């Protein structure tokens, strides 16, 4: 039997900018654009898939797991109580960097949002994850 060590959890803040349907919300309380964030070294999805370098977030009323290792997004299915891979959503870009005081990961993701049975849209979000300086976070992105 193999026992995984518990993942490291890094606490920080998320700054979120949502641009969709010709509306822009920047750091407003109405859309929870600023919130505390838990960045995980890894997370087990369905006890099988190991998602590395990830964080959880609620976007457009959907719980999502953002996976930096494969640029993937997993959405929470309320019926099965599990995260499932969404092949229509993705992280389109991200840039981790650090200075003397902070570590920051800036990026852009696209979340597939089915409006109706015939209309599905990719909503765009810009994000910044900000942490106290932790070199371990930057090291997680080196494979």
Element layout with pairings:
Elements: E1 9-20, E2 23-26, E3 34-45, E4 49-59, E5 62-67, E6 72-77, E7 82-98, E8 102-114, E9 120-132, H1 135-140
Antiparallel strand pairs: 1-2, 1-3, 1-9, 3-4, 4-5, 5-6, 6-7, 7-8, 8-9
Task: Compose a concise summary of this entry.
The protein is mainly beta and 143 residues long. 4% of the residues lie in helices and 66% in strands.
What are the main properties of this structure?
1 helix; 143 residues; eight-stranded antiparallel beta barrel; mainly beta
Explain the overall architecture.
4% of the residues lie in helices and 66% in strands. By secondary structure, the protein is mainly beta. It has an eight-stranded antiparallel barrel. The two termini are 26 Å apart. 21% of the residues are buried.
